[in-house]
Amino acid sequence: MSAINEADIHSFVDAISIYFQQITREKAEIRAAYLVEGDILPTTFELTGYITVTGSFSGKVYFSASRGMVSHLLLMMHDTDHSEPRLLDAVGEIANTISGNARKHFGESMEISVPTTQTTGHGWLDKVVSPHSYVVLIKWKQYRASVVVDIQSNI
After folding, report:
1. Which has more confidence, 100 or 40?
2. Going by C-beta distance under 8 Å and a sequence separation of 6 or more, which residues neighbour residue 115?
3. Distances from the Cα of 6 to the Cαs of 3, 12, 48, 63, in angstroms?
4. Would you give the distance in Å from CA 141 to the centre of its chain?
5. Domains of the chain, earliest start first
6. HEC profile for the chain?
7. Which one, of 16, 88, 9, 82, lies nearest residue 45 by Cα?
8. Staple partner for 69: which of 11, 65, 118, 129, CB 3.0–4.6 Å?
9. Alpha-carbon distance 50 to 47, whole Å?
10. CA end-to-end span of the chain, whole Å?
11. Where is average pLDDT lowest: 1-10, 87-96, 138-147?
12. Which residues of 23-39 are buried (b: 16+ CB within 10 A; e: fewer)?
């Protein structure tokens, strides 16, 4: 297995930008993109959706955000249901959309699963991601979110 490279991470940054531009007609600010190392761990928010990647790549792609951000995004889509199940469904859809958009860079041999979602507490991502993961920090309006790319090439 080999680590993904800068161009691979850039495909996720582009996918995040495309998602926010299409849904909100506004750009999300990419605050940072970095490799998980030592004390620099990913930030976990209240809701997390993730996609399992198989095929020529393996691992997971996580999208973690606050309830406030996900509710606001639902409002932008004219969705008035902000129940816990709907918020979790939305965070899974976001993880799926970002992974699907990034898949264009990786090709059809990268297979993505249906999303898994859960409420998450502080530090949850620290416990599940590997040391070779990349974190992309996002700011949209007053909200913050993170995308953690924890995948490797099987080629």
Report:
1. 100
2. 49, 50, 51, 92, 93, 95, 96
3. 10, 10, 24, 19
4. 17
5. 2-153 (3.40.1550.10)
6. CEECCHHHHHHHHHHHHHHHHHHHCCCCEEEEEEECECCECCCCCCEEEEEEEEECEEEEEEEEECHHHHHHHHHHCCCCCCCHHHHHHHHHHHHHHHHHHHHHHHCCCEEECCCEEEECCCCHHHHHCCCCCEEEEEEECCEEEEEEEEEEECC
7. 88
8. 65
9. 10
10. 7
11. 1-10
12. bbeeebebeebeebeee
Q: Which residue carries 């995040």 as its tokens?
A: 16
108, 51 in Cβ contact below 8 A?
A: no
Q: At residue 152, what are phi and psi to the nearest 5 degrees? A: -135, 155
Q: Centre a 10 Å sphere on the Cβ of residue 44 and count the other Cβ atoms it contains.
A: 21
pTM: 0.92
User: Exposed (0-12), middle (13-18) or buried (19+): which is 123, by Cβ within 10 Å?
Assistant: exposed
CA distance 105 to 120: 29
